[in-house]
Amino acid sequence: SAQAGLVPGKAQVYLCNRALWLKFHRHQTEMIITKQGRRMFPFLSFNISGLDPTAHYNIFVDVILADPNHWRFQGGKWVPCGKADTNVTGNRVYMHPDSPNTGAHWMRQEISFGKLKLTNNKGGSNNPGQMVVLQSLHKYQPRLHVVEVNEDGTEDSSQPGRVQTFTFPETQFIAVTAYQNTDITQLKIDHNPFC
Amino acid sequence: SAQAGLVPGKAQVYLCNRALWLKFHRHQTEMIITKQGRRMFPFLSFNISGLDPTAHYNIFVDVILADPNHWRFQGGKWVPCGKADTNVTGNRVYMHPDSPNTGAHWMRQEISFGKLKLTNNKGGSNNPGQMVVLQSLHKYQPRLHVVEVNEDGTEDSSQPGRVQTFTFPETQFIAVTAYQNTDITQLKIDHNPFC
DNA sequence: GATTTTTGCACCTAGGTGGAAATT
DNA sequence: TCAATTTCCACCTAGGTGCAAAAA
Question: Which of B60, B83, B61, B189 is nearest to B139 (CA)?
């Protein structure tokens, strides 16, 4: 079934590795966060169409709280446990390294975020802009943003409707410092070649 | 001593790892070429200044024949041996992956060509544009080119004087399929961390 | 035969994994 | 004690080396 409706003048975005994301999502995806930063697995990867081939765009991901809860793993299940910590600091945006670039470039091939890293280290960012700062035991929702920009990469705030945001619920995850659900651990081992 | 004179309106280029290049040059540098492509060691790396920070440039390296001879290693020395094979085909240009980019970008940090690969495979290029095709037992001279371009990366041939070329004789080398001079082999082992 | 090129390989760098143990 | 985090480590992928043997 289609992942997004086809609307004239709008970009269409498909989640490339959706089947894999769904396997994890069934068990409630967990992502490890570490001080020095940990890649996501699965990682975000998109196909995009419907852009103006000659226009310029920035494409980036941000990660927002998916719900207002603090979570804990108890009795083999994830259960809400108090309110989320909303005293938030730290970068939650990861600009794709190809940005800015033309619509033709973005539509030519998969747009992968394999080098995006998750961390719980609010302080000294070693790789500025490469690290997304999250809080453990909170549930998050990644989002994709497509922003039309001028040729020099600057945004033109005088022109409305140049920002498009895409959300895929199957990419939600709970940030952890160690895996809680052994089903998730096994899925990581089975599918991540580094394991 | 200065590597290039300071001329107003002209870019100045410095060879970053010149001391290392000179160590090899004293013994006549050799570079391995293979079918699937071999990196150079030392690799080309430059600092550049004197560009217009807001103008756009393509920066690339090409590799030309350094002399009209075919060479052979005999009695522990390189000696000319007949004429160079000038029936030439295959790409000899390697565009820096950051191209096109602004003068500010190019002047901000070292411009390294560490991923440039040398091959003797004229035919199927697996990495188009990433491989420089050379002939074994010929002597070559790499050159750096700085070309001012329009914002979209296209050249403007109607404007003269937008191309600048820089040549460093200490980066000359003879292409080989196996090292001939053991002094060169030892220098590679001593300085290349992969050995 | 002699020279040049190719192939396979052990070894290296570089860095991404989960697990166990130690720490907080 | 317990839960959560950090550290260390063996093991993995990925790919750049020179070398010896084989092939051309």
Answer: B83
- For residue B153, the chain A residue with the least C-alpha distance is A151
- Name the residue type at position B70: H
The two structure tokens encoding residue A22: 């769904």
Mean pLDDT of the region B132-151: 95
DSSP three-state, residue A68:
strand
Nucleotides of C under 7 A from a protein CB: 3-7, 12-21
**Protein residue at shortest CA distance from C1' of C14:** B194
- The answer to whether the CB of A76 falls within 8 A of the CB of A39 is no
Residue with tokens 């033709």: A104
For residue A81, CA distances in Å to A65, A67, A96, A112, B72 come to: 15, 12, 34, 34, 77
State the sign of the Cα–Cα–Cα–Cα dihedral B122, B45, B152, A113: positive
Task: For residue B23, give the H/E element and its range.
Answer: helix B18-25
Question: Alpha-carbon distance A31 to A95, whole Å?
Answer: 20
Say whether B152 and A152 touch across the interface (CB within 8 A).
no
Q: Which residue of A has its CA nearest to B56?
A: A152
pTM of the model: 0.85
pLDDT of residue A134: 96
Lowest-pLDDT range of A11-15, A125-129, B12-16, B164-168: A125-129
Q: Which residues contact A168 (CB under 8 A, 6 or more apart)?
A: A3, A15, A18, A21, A142, A144
Beta bridge partners of A61: A94, A144
What are phi and psi for residue B64, nearest 5 degrees?
-115, 160
From residues 82-141 of B, list those within 7 angstroms of strand C by Cβ: 120-121, 136-137
Judged by phi (left if over 0) then psi (alpha if -120 to 50, else beta), residue B172 lies in: beta
Give B74-127 as a DSSP string: ETTEEEEEEE------S--EEE-TT-SEEHHHHHHS-EE-TT-EEE---S--SS
